[in-house]
Design brief:
Helices cover about 40% and strands about 15% of the residues. With about 325 residues, it is α/β, with parallel strands linked by helices.
Length: about 325
């Protein structure tokens, strides 16, 4: 099996020499035969980074989905932002990691603002996303003179939606929520249940579904509202860019004539050694596989935490 994997890896490197031109940061499975592979899901073929960028430039809306704690995903996002914001006309770059209340501060940032200045202006705290991961992406966007746009909703708005307060979803940016099919809501509900390790009662998760869909609608709205002649780019978690469940549905509902391309950055898995094991054209257009950041069993940690809390109560 190791010999087969090595031969397959060599064939991929020969056919797509740019695929493996990476300085990987994530420590696990760097030598996996699929590590570095970029896969065009529609054509079911491996492509190079150059080909990917060329195809993305032809789309008006580009959505890039990451695994938040994978350092390689942030490196690849940096390369994609740099490549796609070259030239005189720039696409807007929308981030899930920025919320609408921060937009005035973003608008007042200079193109040469330092990371320290940006962090201070945005009043970034330890409770926000890791600055070391996202600060450089914000800085690169401004350095390349592309509009830096907040895609997410504020914590106060999230609380209002979660509590189902009157008029919490009355803004225009949430207008597409009314057209989301029940089948989609049910799938989002199931994903949230699974992501919470199936430890929370299903009936308690409906407010989370509302928040998830509202955030998707907000990010879609930010892309459409701020897109330039060159379009818009979204940087968000992988679940938010899924064609079958998330932001792309809201984009299509409002402006179906705009072309979309979805790139999903994903980690390789030890027992999956061919592109067919990873491909899902219903979720994305392109798949870019990277090493794994860790093998932490978060569900095991959550179960242990809940058991400790239960023991203390008893």
């Amino acid at each position: 099996m190791k010999l087969i994997a090595a031969v397959y890896s060599t064939l991929l490197a020969v056919s797509c020499p740019l695929v493996y031109a990476q300085n990987w940061q994530a420590p696990l499975l760097q030598d996996h035969p699929m590590t570095g592979l970029i896969y065009d899901l529609a054509r079911q073929s491996t492509i190079s980074e150059t080909e990917l960028i060329s195809q993305l430039r032809q789309s008006e809306l580009v959505l890039i989905g990451e695994k938040h704690d994978n350092s390689d995903h942030h490196q690849l996002e940096s390369r994609l932002i740099k490549a796609l914001t070259q030239g005189q006309k720039k696409p807007a770059v929308v981030f899930e990691m920025l919320n609408d209340k921060q937009q005035p501060q973003l608008d007042n940032l200079s193109d040469d603002a330092s990371l320290h200045t940006m962090k201070a202006r945005l009043e970034w705290s330890k409770h926000d996303w890791p600055w070391s991961d996202y600060g450089p992406l914000f800085q690169l966007t401004r350095k390349n003179q592309a509009p830096l746009i907040a895609g997410n909703i504020s914590r106060s708005a999230i609380r209002s939606i979660y509590k189902q307060e009157p008029d919490a979803l009355s803004e225009h940016r949430y207008s597409t929520l009314h057209g989301i099919p029940d089948t989609v809501r049910q799938k989002v509900h199931s994903e949230i249940y699974r992501n919470h390790c199936e430890l929370m009662p299903r009936e308690t998760l409906e407010p989370m579904v509302n928040v998830q869909l509202a955030r998707d609608a907000s990010m879609a709205n930010a892309m459409l509202k701020h897109r330039t002649e060159q379009g818009a780019i979204l940087i968000a978690g992988g679940f938010h860019v899924r064609k079958d469940l998330s932001v792309p549905l809201h984009l299509s509902a409002r402006q179906p004539e705009l072309t979309q391309s979805i790139v999903l950055l994903a980690e390789v898995q030890a027992d999956k050694n061919s592109p067919a094991d990873y491909s899902n054209a219903q979720q994305a257009d392109y798949l870019w596989l990277t090493p794994r950041q860790n093998d932490i069993d978060y569900c095991a940690q959550m179960r242990a935490h809940m058991e400790q809390k239960a023991a203390k109560r008893s």
